Amino acid sequence: MQTKNKPTRTTQWLCLTAMFMALNVIMSSFSIPVPGGHLYMNDVVICTAAILMDPLAAFLVGGVGAFLGDLLFYPTPMFVSLATHGLQAVVISLFAHRVMKKHPAAASGIGVTLGALIMVAGYLLGRAFIYSTPEYALLKLPYQFLQAGVGAVVGMLLCWKCGLCRLYNDRMIR
């Protein structure tokens, strides 16, 4: 008797990944004006998806979703977004799912902190390279810290205080 292998990726996984990617594209299409710059809220989606989902789905949501959002609305930094947000999401997901399994909220907190630092450093280096001026990259640095911080804090609140992690683990078939 031959046994059937259970597929590692389900339809639910695919649909949820696609939904988070679409949210990332939507949230990167508009910004909140702040004095001297803009605040994009797509980091909230990236952090939330990375805490909930596995590293592959997190990369697709974070990296590919940010790449598509930039491709549609502001294509200059799209490859910087692919690498930076992709790596950010993978690191958050790895910490959330594979480090300190008895304390997932603390592991997620460490992950979003490292992810925020990766995002800030990636955009600092990427902007300095793309625009050929380190001064411009340094000028935008406070907004990158703000965006990373807001994304990390709101993502953690949504997942742990609002119960998205519990709901995801109860409802998703893995």
Task: Write a short abstract of this structure.
The chain has helices at residues 11-27, 42-52, 55-73, 78-98, 104-130, 134-139, 141-161, 164-171; strands at residues 32-34, 37-39. By secondary structure, the protein is mostly helical.
Question: What do these coordinates show?
Answer:
There is one protein chain. With 174 residues, this protein is mostly helical. The protein has 8 helices and 2 strands. The protein has a two-stranded antiparallel ribbon. Strand 1 (32-34) and strand 2 (37-39) form a beta hairpin. The longest helix is centred in the C-terminal third of the chain and has 27 residues, at 104-130. The protein starts with 10 loop residues before the first helix and ends with a helix.
List keywords for this structure.
single chain; 3% strand; 174 residues; mainly alpha; two-stranded antiparallel ribbon
Portion in helices: over 70%
Low-confidence stretches: none
How many DSSP E strands? 2
**Strands ordered across the widest β-sheet:** 1-2
The average pLDDT is: 90
Beta-strand fraction estimate? under 5%
Largest sheet: 2 strands, antiparallel
SSE order, as H and E?
HEEHHHHHHH
State the distance separating the first and last CA atoms.
25 Å
Question: Over the alpha carbons, how many angstroms does the gyration radius reach?
Answer: 17 Å
Tell me the number of helical segments per DSSP (H or I, 4 or more residues long): 8
Shape: globular
Note the topology.
Layout lengths: L10 H17 L4 E3 L2 E3 L2 H11 L2 H19 L4 H21 L5 H27 L3 H6 L1 H21 L2 H8 L3
Antiparallel strand pairs: 1-2
